[in-house]
Amino acid sequence: MKFESAIIIRDKTRLEQLIERFNSKAQAKFYIESSGGDFEYFELEHNTFYESLSKIKESITGNLKHKVINRSFLPTYIFTEKDLVLVIGQDGLVANTAKYVNGLPIIGINPDIERYDGILLKHAPSDLNGILKNVMKGNYETKEVTMAKATLNDGQILLAFNDFYIGADSHVSSRYSIAFNGIKEQQSSNSIIISTGAGSTGWLSSIFNMTNNVSGYYNSAKNDCGTTLDWNDNKLVFVVREPFLSKMTETNIGYGIITKNKTLKIESNMPTNGVIFSDGIESDFLNFNSGSIVEIGIADERANLVV
Predict the structure, then answer these.
(1) What is the spatial distance between Cα 117 and Cα 90, in angstroms, rounded to a whole number?
(2) The pLDDT of residue 222
(3) 5-140 has which CATH code?
(4) Cβ distance 102 to 74 under 8 Å?
(5) CB neighbours (10 Å) of residue 64?
(6) Which of 145, 200, 225, 266 is most solvent-facing, going by the fewest CB within 10 Å?
(7) Degrees, nearest 5: CA angle 192-197-200
(8) What's the predicted TM-score (pTM) here?
(9) Over 80: is that where the pLDDT of 220 sits?
(10) Where are any strands of DSSP class E within 115-212?
(11) CA 12 to each of CA 67, 88, 107: distance values in angstroms, whole numbers, following the listed order
């Protein structure tokens, strides 16, 4: 594959978000410092990010054309097979980007190793020049990551790199019917979480931690509940959070493994405020209200992270 353009994906720094909120840097500084915060921390973080972004642009110049786009434009930006995708930010930005680039190689760059864990950001800005030379020669490897796919009965589709949230958009009961492995029942719960292998050490693990704590209180000889999948496993894990047993709702379906041949189907019974969002991005969602049916399965698309 011959790349012609580098598409740099970034998000606004926290300082930029503060300035937007308070209309000026001076007002943002006054608010943070009057509440006892350290405004210099935001400034240092902001400056470090832009230093890294400048290094990245310097490395690209002479190798490829480049364009910088903000995360908010990802759902509408049209990528081509000649685009090389560079993500500079935090791990969540890589997850969010992977859903929209149709399997294109992604180079995750950690702009601030002192602050960001960088589980998905394997490269430093200073490494990029050498990486680009290898990529341009076709001398590179990628790590494939299995993604989840939500398909609504009206044809809308949403992908997830880490996990899906399905439920109400506020702290009220989520009402729906759920069908899995030949069983169907009405449920009322907090929500349903569906996790990929990449997400199994995140939100899913916190659910298992809670389960283990409760189980351990009543049973000191318990076996820990938990599932950690490889990133490229053709499996997804779903968990129903806080299901409620009543005359109208059941709790028999609470956990399961989704495979290529075994999907999960959910029909909304929520008149309003039902949503499906992925990877913690609540602003990028599908409405999931009464009449909506979603099928959760393994996506044909794979994320490809340059290693």
Answers:
(1) 8
(2) 55
(3) 3.40.50
(4) no
(5) 20
(6) 225
(7) 55
(8) 0.87
(9) no
(10) 142-152, 157-160, 163-168, 174-180, 183-189, 191-195
(11) 16, 11, 19
Out of 2.40.30.170, 3.40.1440.10, 1.10.10.60, 2.60.200.30, the CATH code matching 147-299 is 2.60.200.30
Q: In which residue ranges of the chain is CATH 2.60.200.30 found?
A: 147-299
> Where does CATH 3.40.50 sit in the chain?
5-140
Look at the chain and count its residues: 307
In the block, residue with structure tokens 């930006």: 77
Q: How far is CA 294 from CA 121, 176, 189, in A?
A: 32, 11, 17
Q: Give the chain's radius of gyration (CA, Å).
A: 22
Whole-angstrom Cα distance, residue 37 to residue 88? 26
Which of 182, 167, 197 lies closest to 294 in space, CA to CA? 167
Strand partners, 294: 152, 266
Q: Which helix (H) or strand (E) holds 106?
A: strand 105-109
Residue whose C-alpha is closest to residue 163's, from 258, 248, 63, 78: 258
Give pLDDT, residue 225: 63
Q: Are 120 and 161 in contact (CB under 8 A)?
A: no
Report helix, strand or coil for 215.
helix
pLDDT over 80 at 37, yes or no? yes
pLDDT tens-digit series, residues 41-57: 999 999 999 999 999 99
Element (H, E) at 299: strand 293-306
